[in-house]
Design a protein that fits this description.
5-stranded antiparallel beta sheet; 6-stranded antiparallel beta sheet; alpha+beta
């Protein structure tokens, strides 16, 4: 799926609205003069900013080095030296390293917020395709929670898929370890910190729902008020330097927002998807193993809070591949949405399968410069048009009569561009029988 970073979108959106004045590089490192409230670049006067105070009340956004993503209002500009004086707290010194920065007529943080608002306004003409595989089928169950990443009313297709066995999957780089929790000593190959790991044993009549696959799962009791981890070390982890590492692990939890898939490169931990508290869900994470010098560990972690219990089973980790393995499933035609649930009818499901739910979700919000939105060039035009509409709408709500006409003209201009629909995505096809 194509993506675009905020660092790319923000100046483009600024130019689209006439709010972007340019991108520059400091010619004196921030802090080198002894002042942490000035930014100096002789490029400013080379670009035509030759009048004192000519940049007053504009906004500077620093885009690299120690003050990356910092935004400040310009309070004074001295053209002869290219010196900008800023408001607010002191910047951080860059010593002798030069930084890049951008100048905007409007606050770039507010422009960013407007882009985030615009992704709501433009849905479903622009959307993120969701392929959710977190739900586990039960033979006796016909109601399942709609994945929260899919907007209500926009589930489009449902498939029943077989599970992939972690132990027998040839490309699982932890397949030689206790990746399926089936070892007679449940803790083999796992290192637990502030988690008590015990074996949860399969039963029948009734079936023990806490065992996802095989005869055992891991029962994990988390200690209160501690950040907890359950990790296994990838064999010969330094063989995968520079490769993409993908991990997926099935977790059962009724406590939301605490448990996440985790990858640790040497001693630096990174977390991925977080459990919603909806029962068995497949948690995933992806990370490039740059600079690994000693080890790669994969597993789960829990944030600090009250003590609780979750269950884990079947971990798969891959290297180099662009995503985790996905089985090929059969479509389910008999289903409907009912508020926050999916109701399956007329289809006998199996207890050892999972659901793949395809649908349409919102584009991701962005906050820092490296954050990405699932959007490409042509689609950006319609996003920017909706953003400009929202921006000038606030002018209409706030301006007095003298300036109202100009604001309304700007608003109508961008509304016309938005209604042209350039870049709008085709809706995802609906695969569903008559009910």
């Amino acid at each position: 799926m194509p993506t675009t970073t905020l660092d790319t979108m923000l100046p483009e959106f600024g130019r689209y609205m006439g709010a972007f004045l340019g991108s520059f590089t400091t010619t004196t490192a921030i802090g080198a003069t002894g002042s942490l409230t000035v930014v100096i670049s002789t490029e400013l006067k080379d670009f035509g900013f030759t009048s004192d105070d000519g940049l007053n009340d504009t906004f500077i956004k620093i885009t690299s080095e120690n003050n990356d993503d910092v935004v400040r209002r310009v309070t004074d500009y001295t053209a002869s030296s290219g010196t900008i004086t800023i408001s607010g707290t002191d910047l951080t010194s860059d010593s002798s390293t030069q930084a890049t920065f951008e100048i905007y007529r409007y606050d770039p943080d507010q422009l960013r917020n407007t882009l985030n608002d615009a992704r709501l306004e433009v849905f479903p003409r622009l959307y993120k395709e969701i392929n959710d595989r977190t739900l586990t089928l039960a033979g006796h169950q016909d109601k399942y929670a709609r994945p929260t990443s899919i907007r209500q009313g926009f589930v489009r297709q449902i498939y029943e898929e077989p599970r992939i066995d972690a132990k027998s999957f040839a490309n699982n780089i932890v397949s030689t370890l206790n990746c399926d929790f089936e070892s007679s000593t449940i803790g083999d190959d796992w290192t637990a910190s502030y988690i008590t790991l015990a074996a949860e044993t399969e039963t029948t009549s009734p079936d023990n729902w806490m065992v996802f696959s095989g005869t055992q799962s891991g029962k994990c009791t988390v200690t209160a008020s501690q950040t907890a981890t359950l990790l296994m070390t990838v064999p010969s982890g330094t063989n995968y330097v520079g490769e993409e590492i993908n991990v997926g692990i099935w977790v059962y939890s009724r406590t939301a927002s605490r448990v996440s898939a985790t990858i640790v490169l040497d001693s630096t931990a990174s977390v991925g998807s977080t459990h919603s508290g909806g029962g068995w869900e497949r948690l995933t994470h992806t990370l490039v193993a740059d600079g690994v010098s000693s080890s790669i560990k994969v597993g789960v972690s829990s944030t600090s809070g009250t003590a609780f219990v979750f269950y884990a089973d079947e971990i798969i980790a891959t290297s180099g591949q662009s995503e985790l393995p996905q089985p090929i499933g059969s479509p389910i035609m008999g289903w409907r949405e009912e508020t926050d649930n999916i109701i399956i009818h007329g289809h006998k499901t199996s207890a050892d399968r999972q659901l793949r739910v395809r649908g349409m979700g919102l584009l991701s919000s962005v906050s820092s410069g490296s954050d990405t939105m699932e959007i490409e060039y042509d689609q950006l035009r319609i996003l920017y048009a909706h953003g400009a509409m929202l921006w000038f709408q606030q002018d209409i709500d706030q301006l007095d009569t003298a300036d109202l006409n100009a604001a309304q003209i700007r608003y109508r201009h961008f509304r016309s561009l938005a209604e042209q629909g350039r870049g709008a995505m085709a809706p995802m096809p609906l695969l569903k029988g008559v009910y």
